[in-house]
Design goal:
Layout: H1 2-22, E1 34-36, E2 43-44, E3 49-57, E4 60-65, E5 70-85, E6 92-95, E7 101-103, E8 106-114, E9 122-125, E10 127-138, E11 141-151, E12 155-159, E13 166-167, E14 174-176, E15 183-187, E16 194-201, E17 206-213, E18 218-221, E19 228-236, E20 239-247
Parallel strand pairs: 2-12
Antiparallel strand pairs: 1-3, 3-8, 4-5, 5-7, 5-10, 6-8, 9-12, 10-11, 13-14, 14-15, 15-18, 16-17, 16-19, 19-20
């Protein structure tokens, strides 16, 4: 009986300890609306992945009030993360508190965890679902608004032992893997609609063209490509981005 009680106690302690490890701590130094880091760490096959994301929401802002058809000064009451879409199967997220909620003028954090498999190697664009509650005042009358928003700036790269990703800071394109062999994955976080791409060899010959779709990873076949250096040109609106990659 005593051994059984000790075993139960040990299981409870281990479970409690794991919950403590999973809980992140908000950064008190964040004082303006921001989300950190700029780029998520790479997840490696067979290894436990743990990534913390820190964020802050200002207390005072402007909100659009549909009933009035205008913007009003407002106070952010709360921001809540309601979900994270696009994570590899088996990955989960947790926050610094149970309901993933912060009040205006404070910081919060979330932790992504999981152990990827070889079958999950690739790019995983994340869509963080957010609900913001704000109160605007029309004279002495408070007008409360609940607004749904999303954050699509982050991606998880799942890499094998030899594959790497070519990642740009901010909204630049992600190329994976680099060097590539049979296929190149291309993802541009900042696309509002779609973009066109053209791949040229080092002599300037066009090897392939295509389009990139908002919040989707494009799988570009490299069949017929010789080993060497190539350049992908991406046009979105009036902006043109060029990046090199290698085919082996």
């Amino acid at each position: 009986m005593r051994k059984s009680l000790l075993s139960i106690l040990m299981i409870c302690l281990i479970s409690f300890s794991n919950n403590l490890l999973a809980q992140c701590t908000p950064d008190p130094n964040l004082k303006s609306t921001a989300t950190l880091p700029a780029v998520l760490d790479t997840a490696f096959v067979g290894k436990l992945y743990t990534q913390e994301i820190k964020y802050f929401i200002t207390k005072d802002t402007n909100v659009f009030v549909p009933q009035l058809g205008t913007n009003l000064n407002a106070t952010i009451d709360t921001l809540r993360i309601t979900g994270v879409r696009g994570m590899p199967d088996g990955f989960t997220y947790s926050c610094h508190n149970a309901d993933c909620k912060i009040v205006g003028g404070t910081a919060g954090c979330a932790t992504l965890t999981g152990t990827p498999t070889q079958a999950q190697v690739g790019i995983y664009p994340l869509l963080v679902l957010i609900t913001v509650r704000a109160t605007a005042f029309l004279g002495p009358v408070p007008i409360s608004q609940n607004a749904s928003d999303t954050n699509a700036r982050y991606s998880i790269i799942v890499s094998g032992t030899t594959s790497k990703a070519e990642i740009s800071e901010g909204d630049g394109p992600i190329l994976f893997p680099n060097p590539a062999k049979e296929e190149l994955q291309v993802y541009v976080p900042a696309l509002s609609t779609e973009a066109q791409f053209e791949i040229q060899n080092i002599q300037g010959k066009t090897m392939q063209t295509g389009r990139l779709v908002k919040h989707e990873v494009s799988h570009v076949s490299l069949a017929g490509f010789d080993s060497g250096v190539y350049i992908i040109h991406i046009e979105k609106g009036n902006e043109k981005i060029s990046k090199k990659f290698v085919v082996q």
